[in-house]
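Notes to self, Adenosine receptor B1a:
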Amino acid sequence: MPFRYQVLMTSRNAVLVILTMWLLAFLIGLVPLMGWHKTPPDSGYCFFVLVVDMTYMVYFNFFACVLTPLVIMFLIYAQIFVTVKRQVRRIASEQRGRGEGQMKAAASMRREMKTATSLFLVLFLFTICWIPLHIINCFLLLCPHCPVPFELLLTAIILSHANSAVNPFLYAYTMTAFRDTFKAIFLCCRAVGDREASNVASGDDREC
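result:
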């Protein structure tokens, strides 16, 4: 069931999942170093498109490591939203006899729905930012003689990297817990800076 997240995802399980994802990403990034790459050019300059094999980028990186997980995750979110819609209809039909327990269940479901929607937006933004570059890579591999404007390639690369820069703002905008944490971090840093400035000013006054 989509709403068993809090039961299944304990702190220990969350740490294990994060470590596993980092390990997988590290191993995937090492694949070209293990031999799946082009022969370095004689010029001595190491450019990405001249060294990395596009078969790795398209078949392994895109189809296996990006597209397949994306399809699975979109299907999971579709199941979540269908389940929520079904639960909303059920609660609406029982609204007249709703007790305190049902009210708590409804509030919990609304929180779960809000979290699921926020995470779906993160997934959707990831898709928008990364798919253009992967499509260009497919063209470079499957149609090597097709012209790809350099400006278009550069825009797709910048867009893919911009995803990581935008995510913190999206988290802060859509999730209260992230927003409160960011406020606590920045306010703490600001307080430390104010104390340091105050100490410097006090030292200058003593020297005078």
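- The mean pLDDT is 82.
- Helices lie at 5-8, 11-30, 48-51, 54-93, 100-142, 150-174, 176-207.
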